[in-house]
Design brief:
The complex is a heterodimer of chains A (156) and B (624). Chain A has 156 residues and is of the alpha+beta class. Chain A folds into 2 domains: 1-34; 41-140, Immunoglobulin-like (Sandwich). Helices cover 25% and strands 40% of the residues of chain A. In chain A, strand 4 (91-99) and strand 5 (102-105) form a beta hairpin. The longest helix of chain A is centred in the N-terminal third of the chain and has 25 residues, at 6-30. Chain B is mainly alpha-helical. Chain B folds into 2 domains: 1-405, no CATH class; 413-624, no CATH class. Chain B is built from 25 helices and 6 strands. Chain B has a two-stranded antiparallel sheet with strand order 1-4. In chain B, helix 2 (29-50) crosses helix 7 (136-156), helix 6 (114-129) crosses helix 20 (454-485) and helix 20 runs antiparallel to helix 25. Chain B starts with 17 loop residues before the first helix and ends in an 11-residue tail after the last helix. Classes of the chains: A alpha+beta (156), B mainly alpha (624). At the A-B interface, helix 1, strand 3, strand 7, strand 8 and helix 2 of A face helix 2, helix 3, helix 5, helix 14 and strand 3 of B.
Chain lengths: 156, 624
Amino acid sequence: MRSRHPEIMDFIRTAIIVLLALLSVLVLSACGPRAEQSGDLDVTILSVSPDPAAVGDAVITLQVRDADGKPVEGATIAVEGTMTHAGMQPVIVETEALGEGRYATKDFRFTMGGDWVIIVRATLADGSTAEQRVDLKGVQGEMQMDMKSDQDKEGN
Amino acid sequence: MAVLRAQKTKQRDLLDVPVVGRFLRWKHARTSLQAVLLVVSALILYDGFWGPQLAPKNLAGVLPWVHWRGFVVLALLIAGNIFCMACPFMLPRRLAKKLLPADRRWPKVIRNKWLAIGVLLVFFWAYEAFDLWASPWLTAWVALTYFVAAFAIDGIFKGAAFCKYVCPIGQFHFVHGMVSPLEVKVRQPDLCGSCPTKDCIKGRYAQRPEQDFLRSSRETTPIQETSSPKASGWTAKSHPHPGPLPQGRGGLSSLDQGNVGLGKAGVSTRENAGSESDIRHSGESRNPDDWDQPWKSQEQHPLRHSRESSPRHGARNPSSSEFQPQSGMPDIPRSSLQPAREVATPAGLQLVQTGCELWLFQERKVGNMDCTFCLDCIQACPYDNVGIQLRVPTSEFRKLDQLHSGVGALTQRTDLAALVIVLVFAAFVNAFGMVPPVYSLEQWLATQLGVTSEPVVLGVLFIIGLVALPFVLVTVTAWCSRALAGSRETLAATATRFSYALIPIGFGMWLAHYGFHFLIGALTAIPVAQSFLADFGVPILGDPRWELAAIVPESWLVPLELLLLELGMLVSLTVGYRIARKQHSSVARAMRALLPWAVIIVLMFFTGAWLMTQPMEMRGVILG
């Protein structure tokens, strides 16, 4: 059945759609912010090899502590390296425990120069999980490495 | 009496494709597409403001910068201006048209593309200076600003002022739509010549139900001029409708059925559609002040041309300002094509379908410039005479000199040429921002300027890259072209004419760049959506699979990018040659005129190829 007031109906339809969209934003916002990180882990990057970090194979050594500051032992730690730009293939690797809450990445590779974000996902001995992020800025790109190499040669 | 309805033609038309065509003819096709994108926008706004502020993990970081950009360039390549068709910013705008007066004329001084160029320059600069790609929060603000701007501007001004004069996304689509294979255009131009109502631009009206009493009198008596025609919108005599109306199409049938619903005794609005009063009413109410604005003079007015060129309407009588009807077709005095200035929707009528709000009159519309694929003209045309037709993608470049309805001749639009040049150079500058040499340049520039502020350095870099360098290059190239060809055309005219030849190489660069991001990150939306739902306790998509990203092997990317760039270069050279040949009858002169532009195009190709083969790096430069 056609409306006798198409203008009014059009207005109502448009208003409903727009209000629903606004409402959905409000409802979602009422749910609170999405978690940036989870669990009470304290993750610190102890070292990156090579130093300074550069495009290519690398080993990242992490120190993982719990909320009380005690080293986390016996956890399964996965490391994801990603960048500030969306849409890139992240580097996801496992780690090996070095003892005293220290873990080292296996087969990690910086695929691009720039600022990286290291995401540490831990499955603790009791089965609980935690996720923390650490910034790793200034991974050298190929061009910077070439320039440094040239400077080193000139210095020699 | 012959039925006026577009016949099937040999042209391939998207509306004839079984499922797609049926959907696009549906009255709510555009709204449904917009509703989908509005929901996506709502999610982007939410996640941008309240989600994790790490772009790869946030819908506001992934959907706009990876998927949307890739989608729009691919859509332009294989179809047309699909994004504007589904633009979510237009829904609040429609609301604004109802809530706010929307009765002001867009200021004459900015009734061109200069403002849009300024907005584009600011956007490209802000994108780099504030790392919009890395900030979901800022991305959400950009989207929100878009909604507010569209609402406010179109709530204040008549027509689709935001789309036509402000929207940077729209300008991107208008320019690159010139190389798209689809175009909204009339099927049978002759039929438009005999259309007295021009609903495609003026919109379609139905009688208000409360005005039913009028209809009984209109059945037997032509509408009488009221004492105040300007105020009421009613004018004198009606013309008979040119013929029985087609039935069964969504747009028209909705009107007809609506009228049927009003009472058997009623005279359908369509039966009066040929009236002079309708012309005046509808043209008036939809965009009175700007009706003749896109055309610099009456000589350029599309309705004038349409009537002069229409064999069914007859030729213009040189001794009179009136057109002389032929073949028994009704004619409309020219005076009726001049809408009165200040009248809103005429009394007793209500708008049931808007015509083109970007003031593109279908009969004189040429190409995709300023066309948002909004489908209004398709819905409005009572003769089913507007389609979405397949064309040779570059065919539009053959008509640069032709008057484009609502646009004018492209070769006379320096503002449009400037827009083209900015977009073409932006394709390269934008990609340059992602490769390591930009850091060295920024560092050098910072040292020279004695500043450590990256936004300032980038501002200088963008003024050089998008304003100064293009201006110098195009000016010198145009001068060389004129000198070599011995052309008497002004420098600006030559520069304007040939600037359109740069569009394909620029588009090739945009395709290579945005296509790269899309192909390498198309699947990243999946884990982000999984994570989004999981955070709300509805992990129906499972645990996030963060390893998902590319949809093609990485080794394909560079060859693919180079192929797109090469295609852009070849098409640009071909278009440039056509432009030169159209200007110069001699092949030798045309080749000489083309030569400097060909050099620029080839240089652009090599620049693009060099950029694409550089190792990509994410910004994060620290100056000082």
